[in-house]
Amino acid sequence: MPGKPQRPLRIIHTSDVHLETDTFGSGERGVQLRDRVRTAFGRVIDIANDRSADLLLIVGDLFDSARVSEEGLAFALGTIGRAQMPVVMIPGNHDAHDERSIYAGLAPNALPENLHLILEPEGKVLDFDHLATRVWGRALVEHSPDYRPLHGVPEREDGLWNIALAHGFFMEEGEMERSSPITPQDIERSRYDYIALGHVHIFNDVSQGNTRAFYCGTPAPLYSSDNSGWVLWVNCVPGEPVAVERLVVGE
Fold it and tell me: Which of 250, 242, 230, 236 is nearest to 17 (CA)?
């Protein structure tokens, strides 16, 4: 197919893990709930490794807030470090890159080598030449109606898989404006192959035109609707429509 890469691409797409929330309370019950969310995140990495994914995308709200202990941060980064593929991550509204940002004080050598953390509010392009893939995302600083998660997305690059990450709320025309809005026009105008979305805790297909765009839902069983979390398996094959499969994470 003209303009398409010649190699396939396999992606695991996750978001809204909400690690280390303090709403669980203290004591044994709080520890149990915290550990269930941690276990679910660990399973995401296991699924990515077991399926030999080429990329793992974490589309915001890995953490529930900026109130994360050193031990909690070490767990998250260590778990990401187990992934056997590049990991691309952006902040969401719960772990926004603002004046309280958990990410601002991290030394570059504190991050696992496989983690590509996008902290640029204006957006950043990452090229993975060995995957014939270009990834774009931008850091959420303030969750407000003025913040447009897909504002500034670059023109698609022919000959590559064009992937974007966006954390915000999809709105059909005529809906009341919400913070961090994403519109059908934003998605379709990108002409990207796949847009990985975060912020909504349930699976949702909001594809427009030839651009596939999905919310993956949360992998954490505490936040999902039927007590089992999910991730998405995104399979990009030259000459075929991008295929998306919802996988149960389990505990």
Answer: 230
Per-residue pLDDT tens over the stretch 158-214? 999 999 999 999 998 766 678 999 999 999 999 999 999 999 999 999 999 999 999
How far is residue 248 CA from its own chain's centroid?
A: 17
Can you say how many angstroms the Cα of residue 173 is from the centroid of all Cα atoms in its chain? 25
- In a 10 Å sphere around its CB, with 0-12 CB exposed, 13-18 middle and 19+ buried, how is residue 221 labelled? buried
> Rg for the chain (alpha carbons), in Å?
17
Q: Cα–Cα distances in Å, from 9 out to 54, 56, 238?
A: 6, 11, 9
Contact status, residue 125 vs residue 152, Cβ threshold 8 Å: no
Looking at residues 130-138, what average pLDDT do you find? 98
| Whether the predicted model's global pTM rises above the 0.90 cut | yes
Q: Quote the CA–CA distance of 206 and 6 in Å, as a whole number.
A: 26
Cβ contact 216:48 at 8 Å: no
CA dist 124 and 180 (Å) reads 18
- Dihedral sign from CA coordinates of 228, 193, 131, 96: negative
Helix (H, G, I), strand (E, B) or coil at 109: helix
